[in-house]
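Regression test case RT-17, inverse folding.

Input:
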């Protein structure tokens, strides 16, 4: 399985998972035009996308998902609450998943969704499994890492996880107090520190690559996120740690391989 972030942050998120027989998008939060040009950069014909899974209704994850699924003729899947919030209930090609259901998203890829706490949304983390039983996780938009999520992440060979904010920067920055409380609360986002702590618990010898994503442009910096996480895991992790920026794709991770492959434009 190959994992490529088309881009990540509050202005749009989408991750392409490719196996020999299938292409799946986790979230489709850029405009349709932008998504198609990002796929073109990867030599992927949008019509070869089998499934788009939308994790929750916020527009940085869902923006062009419905239009893309209609134009490309692919499956669109979400949970019932996300479909309700996006008014997708009458969409013919929509499939609804339930919590912890194993979803066949292509010939040789299945997805498992794990509920995570996020304000006013029924958000899920996604664990993808290929036909060799190798697993990759995509985890964004959660205020807290649950014990259930940790137990699933302990089986993964690749983990993409958000490191949204640096706690001091958020608290000293210009956000109103109510927003600071929301971001740092149980339904907000993970700080660098929370992500470092969670990874410390998860890291195992078969975890080869980690991508930090959904970094806040106001309250974080790539080098701060990277050093805080590395500090937490450097004794136990010898794979690669990369950062997905708002405008990708910049690199792909191949499961089982430590070093990411740069994408040349
Ligand atoms: Zn988001
Ligand atoms: Zn969100």
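Golden output:
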């Amino acid at each position: 399985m190959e994992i490529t972030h088309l881009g990540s942050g509050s202005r749009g998120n989408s991750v392409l998972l490719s196996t020999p027989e299938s292409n799946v998008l986790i979230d489709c939060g850029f405009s349709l035009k932008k998504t198609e040009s990002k796929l073109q950069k990867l030599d992927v014909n949008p019509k070869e996308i089998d499934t788009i899974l939308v994790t929750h209704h916020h527009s940085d994850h869902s923006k062009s998902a419905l239009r893309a699924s209609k134009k490309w003729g692919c499956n669109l899947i979400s949970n019932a609450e996300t479909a309700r919030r996006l008014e997708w209930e009458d969409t013919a090609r929509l499939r609804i998943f339930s919590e912890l259901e194993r979803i066949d998203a292509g010939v040789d890829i299945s997805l498992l969704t794990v509920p995570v706490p996020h304000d006013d949304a029924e958000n899920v983390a996604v664990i993808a499994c290929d036909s060799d039983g190798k697993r990759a996780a995509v985890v964004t938009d959660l205020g807290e890492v649950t014990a259930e999520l940790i137990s699933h992440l302990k089986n993964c060979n690749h983990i993409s996880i958000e490191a949204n904010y640096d706690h001091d920067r958020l608290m000293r920055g210009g956000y109103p107090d109510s927003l600071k409380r929301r971001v740092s609360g149980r339904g907000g986002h993970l700080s660098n520190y929370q992500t470092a702590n969670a990874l410390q618990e998860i890291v195992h010898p078969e975890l080869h690559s980690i991508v930090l994503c959904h970094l806040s442009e106001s309250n974080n910096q790539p080098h701060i996120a990277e050093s805080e996480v590395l500090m937490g895991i450097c004794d136990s992790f010898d794979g690669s740690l990369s950062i997905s920026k708002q405008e990708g794709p910049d690199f792909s991770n191949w499961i089982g391989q430590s070093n990411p492959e740069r994408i040349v434009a």
